[in-house]
Write a structure and sequence with these properties.
Length: 305
């Protein structure tokens, strides 16, 4: 009996020591991650101030285009009013950033998971950069233009793609506004979030299947640049897999996409997957605001047990 009690006692001591060790590691990561989280939170808050103060040029264009669309096509007034919110912190684009930040796990269980968390914080910080966020708003401007039957011009689109951009909803494929879902037959289709279902109800646009959508040109800033620069790793992976299952000339994964997919698929975390240190340093260079540049993207975790 005494021997059994001693064995149980030793087992309990071992478990307590292991628990203390894991707690110590978690606390060390948490301390460093919370410091970076505070910097990113500051960037996101500053973006809100600038958005609501009307300091982003594409935000001003959204207001102008929305007002014009409502006048020339009264049937689209509700859609124009909805898209007008994207020029403020009430829009889906800004709210998607705050949700990503809120979902970050600041108490990781391992160094690998902590590295993934740090990567996600870097990506959110890059997305909150005023220059990058303003570029992303061009997709809202161009969606308004596409509804105007050519009366409003698309902006920031390569000359070779302007004609197709004038006829394309640039928000399809952006996870802030909807998601690709699969039906019982295995076909992936685009499902809008909430009020954005008006695109189908008011404009009469049929639901997009991924295969049909990917078989045509569909320029968007998010799809061509933003996803790889600051999109979540889960969205990069999801779209990479979709493009592999539905290959067309218009949706071939870029070198940047292949790199992010290859590296992020090796690292998992509570919210998604991270990327290699080489990719981290490259992505951290995007954007130009001084607030975003204050984030130390190259900082790793201090050594220790």
């Amino acid at each position: 009996m005494k021997r059994n009690n001693l064995r149980i006692f030793k087992t309990l001591i071992a478990l307590l020591l292991l628990s203390s060790f894991l707690s110590g590691c978690s606390n060390r990561f948490e301390e460093q991650l919370r410091g970076n989280h505070k910097v990113v939170s500051s960037s996101v808050s500053y973006l809100k101030e600038q958005l609501d103060a009307g300091q982003l040029t594409n935000g001003l264009l959204i207001n102008k285009y929305a007002n014009t669309l409502g006048q020339i096509k009264p049937d689209y007034a509700d859609i124009a009013s909805l898209l007008k919110q994207e020029s403020t912190s009430q829009g889906k684009a800004y709210n998607a950033l705050t949700k990503r930040l809120a979902s970050v796990n600041l108490v990781p269980d391992s160094r690998e998971e902590a590295a993934g968390v740090l990567k996600e914080l870097q990506l959110i910080n890059a997305a909150a950069d005023l220059h990058e966020f303003n570029n992303g708003l061009a997709d809202v401007v161009n969606t308004l233009a596409s509804l105007s039957d050519g009366q409003l011009a698309v902006i920031n689109v390569p000359a070779s793609q302007r004609e197709s951009a004038q006829q394309t909803n640039a928000l399809v494929g952006n996870p802030a506004y909807g998601s690709w879902r699969q039906n019982s037959s295995g076909t992936s289709f685009w499902a809008w979030y909430g009020m954005y279902s008006m695109f189908s109800n008011v404009t009469g646009m049929n639901r997009y299947s991924y295969g049909g959508w990917a078989s045509r040109p569909h320029y968007s800033y998010y799809g061509n640049y933003g996803r790889n620069r600051w999109g979540s790793s889960s969205d990069v992976n999801r779209n990479y897999n979709l493009s592999r299952r539905n290959p067309t000339r218009y949706n071939k994964p870029s070198a940047a996409t292949r790199t992010r997919y290859a590296t992020s698929s090796k690292r998992s975390s509570s919210f998604g997957r991270g990327s290699s240190s080489k990719s981290s340093s490259r992505n951290s260079s995007y954007g130009s605001s001084s607030r975003s540049s204050s984030f130390s993207s190259s900082r790793g975790f201090r050594s220790g047990k």
